[in-house]
From TrEMBL:
Protein keywords: Aminotransferase, Pyridoxal phosphate, Transferase
Molecular function GO labels: pyridoxal phosphate binding; transaminase activity
CDD domains: AAT_like (cd00609)
Keyword Transferase: yes
Keyword Transferase: yes
Name of the protein described by the UniProt record: Aminotransferase class I/classII large domain-containing protein
Entry-linked SUPFAM superfamilies: PLP-dependent transferases (SSF53383)
Cofactor(s) listed in the protein's UniProt record: pyridoxal 5'-phosphate
Aminotransferase class I/classII large domain span: 5-299
Species the sequence originates in: Salpingoeca rosetta (strain ATCC 50818 / BSB-021)
GO biological process terms held by the UniProt record: alpha-amino acid metabolic process
Organism lineage: Eukaryota, Choanoflagellata, Craspedida, Salpingoecidae, Salpingoeca
Pfam families: Aminotran_1_2
InterPro entries reported for this sequence: Aminotransferase_I/II_large, Class-I_PLP-dep_aminotransf, PyrdxlP-dep_Trfase, PyrdxlP-dep_Trfase_major
Amino acid sequence: MLLDQGESSVLVESPTYSGALAALYPMRLNIAKVPSDDDGLQPDALQHTLETWDESKAPRPRVLYTVPNGCNPTGASLSLNRRHRVYELCCEHDIIIMEDDPYFYLQYTSPRLPSLFSLDTEGRVLRFDSFSKIVSSGLRMGFVSGPPALLEQLQLHGQAVSLHASGISQALLLKVLEAWGADGFHQHVNEVVAFYARQKEAFFASAERHLSGLASWNPHVSAGMFAWLKTHVPDTKALIQEKAVDAKVLLVPGEAFIAPDKCDLRAQRFDALPRSPSPYVRAAYSTATPQDMDTALQRLASLLRAEQ
C-alpha cells in the first residue's frame, strides 16, 4: 500500500522483527538498516542516513518500520527523548512511520511511555497493536490506529487480501471485552504485566547464574518478553539451530533479525540473499517456567563453553 514492489526504499531499525523482514523481502525493496541500541533506534543514525541519501542509487525512503516498546528481538524500548527526535526527523524528511506496537501494554514501568501515534500532529503514524500478547495469541486479533486517509486505504487493501479477520475471533473478543469493561481490561493487563515482570526477573537471574563470562545482555529490559544475548561465537546459526536443538533448547540465532548489508533487492532474488552472521541469540521468557528457563540457560552455557 505504501511501497512499490521492486522499486521503493524502506527504513528498518536493526535488528528488527524477523516476521517484518520476511514480509519485506519478497517485495524486492531497497532495505536500509538504521542501528539500534539498548534505548532503541538511534536518531543520530537515522538523521545521517536521511541526510546522506544518494537518490542516484535508490529512491528516497518513504516509510520507517519500528517496534518502539520491548522490541523483538532486543527487548529495547525507545526512550522518550528519542521518540520525539525520531518523529521530528520523519516530519522533516516526509517519512510515514509504521509503529509496530504489540508490547505497548507490556511495559513494566508506570506511566507507560507514549506511543509515536500519540505524538503525531501531521498524520504520518500508523500504529499497529495486538490482542495476542494480552488476551489470547490464538485469536490472532489486532487493531490499527492512524490518519483516516491511510486507514481507508488500509481497509480496502485488507478487503482485497483477506476480506476480513475471523468473524468467530472477533465475536469472542468482543464478548470478553464487554464482560470485562474498561476497569476489568486494565486489571487484566496489570496482571499480565506482573506475570511477565516475574518471568523477566527469573530469566535474568538464571542468565547471571549460568552465562556470566560467556555472554552479555541488557538486564534493564522495560517491556515485552525478549532477551538479546551476545555470545563469543561469531556465527550462532549452527550452534542454535543444530546443537541447541539437540539439547532441547529452543532459541533463535541473531541473523534471523538482521537484513544483509546493502540489502537492495530490486534487482536480485530475495531467496538468494547473502547471510548476515551474528554473535547474538534471541531468547523469549514468555511461557517457560522459571525451572525450565534455568535448565535451558544451563545447557546453553555448556554449549558455549564447548565453543571456546
